[in-house]
Amino acid sequence: MVIQALLYLATLKYLLMKKIQMVDLISQYNHIKEDVDQAVLDVIRSSAYINGPEVKSFQKELEEYLNAKHVIPCANGTDALQIAMMALGLKPGDEVITATFTYVATAEVIALLGLKPVLVDVHPDTFQIEPEKIRGAITAKTKAIVPVHLFGQCAPMEEIMEIAKAHGLYVIEDTAQAIGAEYTFGNGKKAKAGTIGDIGATSFFPSKNLGCFGDGGAIFTQSDELAQKLRMIANHGQSVRYYHDEVGVNSRLDSIQAAILRQKLPHLDQYNARRRRAAEFYNTSFAHEPRLKTPALAENSTHVFHQYTLQLEGDRQAMIDHLASKNIPAMIYYPVALHMQKAYRDERYKEGDFPVTEQLVNTVFSLPMHTELNDEQLVYITQSVLEFFNS
What we know:
2 domains, seven-stranded mixed β-sheet, 14 helices, Aspartate Aminotransferase, domain 1, Aspartate Aminotransferase, domain 2
């Protein structure tokens, strides 16, 4: 009778538990619903939908948060990367070094501009681009490095900046997954992700740590000259209407999205702290399971856990299926490395050239990670993961 009662209580508790999602945007919205709704209504009533006061205010507030001299809002993170490369004057045939273990957008814009993506491997523990691999990939045609701050922490920026300075290269930080992360230099100086290189680029896709309710992005720089070019290129290449000094694009953050981001930005540090708390719960729970490798923390960076990514020794699909049977979502970021993607196949690269990445694409999986995870959900997720090894 006691066992039956315990099973009944456990089943009841499960049925009452809030549905587990990879990212719970609805619950996050509900906490700030009144402020967001009012901000959106204010934009609608003003009819200032494009380049309105909300966009300018968000720009200034993000500059203050990042301690960046210039923030240029744009339509999405991919545009941010493309506009950055256009502003640096990169020409077809120029080589740009980036990691092969990343989302396709990083290499996509390089290829779209006729540049040549040069792919390198990553660190097996932090997943960040390896400086030594960068050094080995530099040629006379290399013009830029694009470090990706993958999953929420910074690439080894001090060493990357030293390499760039020694070879006269530009650095564009892909900060789409790490906004709010902080990097500490050897001398104790601190800087936010995206503000260290020549240009930083980020996305405000809804699932990002700072996400809007549609598409959005921004570009950061400390350079007055680059800021002027970035603004022009994002606005059809014009600084004065109908006078086009650069070949540009049409890439704008609309006022409604800016208004939403203004309401969320003051909560960003709290959001990131909640993600860190969830990650610490996962880490503690998995500490004694040798077949799971928890995320390693980079030496000089805080981690804002855009994703919580484990490495599994065992049958990954069986683990994902097991979690699905418990109504727990899991994702693989990323199942195919860039050098193995059909669109980016290159005779310079073959299977086996990037051993770390090729191991990661076969072993990593990510658990739910967002600001609304509660203890009950975390206990259920971690117990379900560990149960896999005992089944």
